[in-house]
């Protein structure tokens, strides 16, 4: 947490306009860290067939709904995150107000919602019904169960080899990546799972969303003076993923680096490219 705070101060100095989003992220992380210390989740029992299916058919090790959750802890975290959101900016404050109203009117059963927090479509459908911003609602729900999900992922980490999967979706849970990362001296490229946080290796020239490997239709762009970040564009599916070069920074948190570079998302959007995995701050 101290390292994170230091990095946040560094970014703030460079880009004072992002203070609001950086403060928000710091508070979210602090709330999640608090929950982690006393988290209680059941062990995940893997079946032998699952690993066979992984190797033979390319199925992920488990499904998202198979991660055990600490519902009490997630519930508390949801309330804390709503409070943080309320103080973050007027848009989030408005959303939190609507959510609270829906809870008070029994239109949201919070514990049930958190149990289903793994099903994005269900959450998005609910957001539609209640007139909520889907991105914000999804963020609040998924961030509340995140400590449980990450603890489950850590339990199973030893079951997988991150170097050999090479596919566009997570070998742990089957979700799409939210970010790509360059690590170690030779610049190996990895994807970061948007759901469970697992990292796995992929080819340098590769679109995780359509599996395009054609160099001619894969490009990247970056902002001047910011060589640690780039946007990888795919001309085939017109989607993009942000890449963070971890070799160019001392210590950091990929989610933070993503949130701290919304100007790159705007640039990609202006060029007509979409991001399959939203974050609550950028559109
Ligand atoms: Zn995953
Ligand atoms: Zn593509």
Bound molecules: zinc ion
**What is the H/E order?**
HHHHHHHHEEEEEEHH
Distinct helical segment count:
10
Shape: globular
User: What distance lies between the first and last C-alpha atoms, to the nearest angstrom?
Assistant: 28 Å
Walk across the major sheet and give the strand order. 3-2-1-6-5-4
In round numbers, the mean pLDDT is: 91
Low-confidence stretches: none
Taken as a percent bin, the fraction of beta residues is: 5-15%
Provide the gyration radius in Å.
19 Å
Describe the structure.
It is a single chain. This protein is α+β, with helices and mostly antiparallel strands and about 280 residues long. It contains ten helices and six strands, in the order ααααααααββββββαα. Strands 3-2-1-6-5-4 form a six-stranded mixed beta sheet. β5 and β6 (about 240-245) form a beta hairpin. α4 (about 70-90) crosses α8. The longest helix has 23 residues, at about 135-155. The radius of gyration is 19 Å and the shape is globular. Bound molecules: zinc ion (2 copies). One zinc ion (ZN) binds near residues 172, 175, 193 and 198.
Strand and helix layout:
Elements: H1 2-14, H2 19-36, H3 48-57, H4 71-88, H5 90-104, H6 110-115, H7 120-130, H8 134-156, E1 177-183, E2 188-193, E3 199-202, E4 218-221, E5 229-234, E6 239-245, H9 254-259, H10 262-270
Parallel strand pairs: 1-6
Antiparallel strand pairs: 1-2, 2-3, 4-5, 5-6
Helix pairs in contact: 1-2, 2-4, 2-8, 4-5, 4-8, 7-8
Residues 207, 209-210, 212, 234, 236-237, 239 line the site of one zinc ion.
